[in-house]
Specification:
Layout lengths: L1 H9 L10 H25 L5 H4 L1 H8 L3 H24 L2 H4 L2 H18 L7 H15 L3 H9 L6 H25 L5 H20 L17 H7 L1 H34 L7 H26 L1 H16 L10 H15 L3 H11 L5 H30 L1 H8 L1 H14 L13
Length: 426
């Protein structure tokens, strides 16, 4: 049994593995437990991403932080994440080093940098520096987490990565809920999220194991990044993801602010802005799991196209409906939250199936790096457009992303190499 497990772990190409009854007995009964544990770790680790955004009302009241300052704090995390993912991608770090160790050490660093924000919460420059470092650390949490899951799942990979991204979504939403509960003790939002991130590291270090389909790279290959960009099917999946990312994080950043303003100015509103923001973002947890099942059975291309079509429609409508009944508006935002991230995991699953197994971590990390670089532009542009033209035109700009993504995934669907995705379901 031990020799079998070792041979599975060291094999270069998982496509040559024999799914014998013995190997299934060793691994397949464990993979769902690993999925639950890693999803829980991802949820906890990602709470630090929006921990400062969740306390933006308190930062505004106590220290005079404007919407522009809040946007800068969010963008600092994005920039740090981009820098961190580029370092990991060009160094093949998630493939050459043990991925669980990369995840665990990164989660610890993210917790420390997040907690340090409390030392001088009134100092914007200090805060920007710490949020940047938090983003760098999170680069070792999100993409490596997807690589670990890919090492455990060959079948149902879309569902597995979708479940983990759903957990990530819940983790991103959780600070808003905590902030709503601890309205007068906003410092606890930072503390709790840091404790969660430390707990994530412990889970991955001591409870999560390497999967049977995990294929470590034998050496650094700096040229592999260029090979990725030269491969048309992978490039199309990247473009689909880029269109998705143009919309996603700007929506997550500004819809809570949009709901806060709408609900505060509506005398009939009885909904809590913080809880509403949590529900809208957390709706993506269900969306990621549902679309994971859909993609494994109907194909990656068609599932991502349908999700972007629905979320794109929300982009072009929600911002113009700020005067309607708050319950109806929240319902529409829930649909947006459900679909805006539902396709995210399927882009990651797609590139993991299109690339060489030994460099899965590099391919996924490069994808997220470029994607998060794009989010910096869309996050920053929303408040500028909203100030001059209102929420309708501002959110409509985000709709350009789904249009690009739909085009790219349609072209990928027509590509012969698309049969490598989702067991031939394109």
């Amino acid at each position: 049994m031990l020799k079998l497990a070792r041979s599975l772990h060291q094999s270069y190409d998982y496509r040559t593995l024999n799914d014998t009854k013995a190997s299934k007995g060793i691994h397949l009964k464990n993979k769902w437990v690993i999925l639950v544990l890693l999803s829980l770790a991802e949820l906890m680790g990602m709470t630090v991403w929006f921990s400062v955004s969740a306390i933006s009302p308190a930062l505004n009241v106590e220290f005079g932080f404007t919407s522009s300052a809040i946007a800068q704090l969010v963008m600092a995390v994005q920039l740090g994440f981009v820098v961190g993912t580029l370092l990991i991608a060009f160094g093949n770090l998630a493939d050459v080093f043990n991925t669980r160790h990369v995840f665990g050490c990164s989660a610890i660093m993210a917790a420390v940098f997040n907690l340090a924000f409390l030392a001088h919460p009134d100092n914007l420059i200090f805060g920007l520096f710490l949020r940047f470092l938090t983003g760098v650390a999170l680069a070792g949490v999100y993409p490596p987490g997807m690589k670990i899951i890919a090492g455990w799942f060959r079948q149902s990979r879309g569902l597995a990565i979708g479940t983990m991204v759903g957990a990530l979504t819940a983790g991103s939403a959780l600070p808003h809920w905590i902030g709503a509960l601890l309205r007068d003790q906003w410092q606890l939002v930072i503390i709790v999220s840091s404790v969660f991130s430390l707990s994530a590291a412990l889970i991955v270090f001591f409870l999560v194991k390497d999967g049977p389909y995990d294929v470590p790279a034998n050496q650094f290959d700096f040229q592999y990044v260029y090979k990725i960009l030269g491969h048309r099917p992978t490039r199309l999946a990247y473009f689909g993801y880029f269109g998705h990312m143009w919309e996603l994080y700007a929506m997550w950043t500004w819809v809570p602010i949009f709901l806060l303003k709408v609900l505060k100015t509506n005398p009939e509103a009885f909904l809590s802005p913080g809880l509403s923001a949590f529900l809208v973002i957390a709706a993506g947890t269900i969306g990621s799991i549902v679309y994971g099942l859909l993609a494994d059975n109907a194909g990656r291309s068609l599932s991502t196209i349908s999700a972007m079509a629905l979320s794109g429609l929300c982009c072009f409508t929600v911002g113009f409906l700020d005067k309607i009944d708050p319950v109806i508006l929240l319902s529409l935002c829930l649909v947006w939250g459900f679909t805006v991230v539902a396709d995210s995991a399927q882009f990651s699953a797609a590139v993991s199936e299109l690339c060489e197994p030994a460099y899965t971590g590099t391919v996924m990390t490069l994808q997220t790096s470029f994607g998060f670089l794009i989010t910096m532009a869309s996050i920053r542009i929303i408040p500028a457009i909203e100030a001059d033209f209102g929420w309708g035109p501002a959110f409509s700009i985000l709709g350009l992303g789904p249009l690009l993504g739909i085009t790219a995934m349609f072209l990928l669907y027509r590509s012969p190499e698309a049969v490598r995705m989702a067991g031939g379901r394109r």
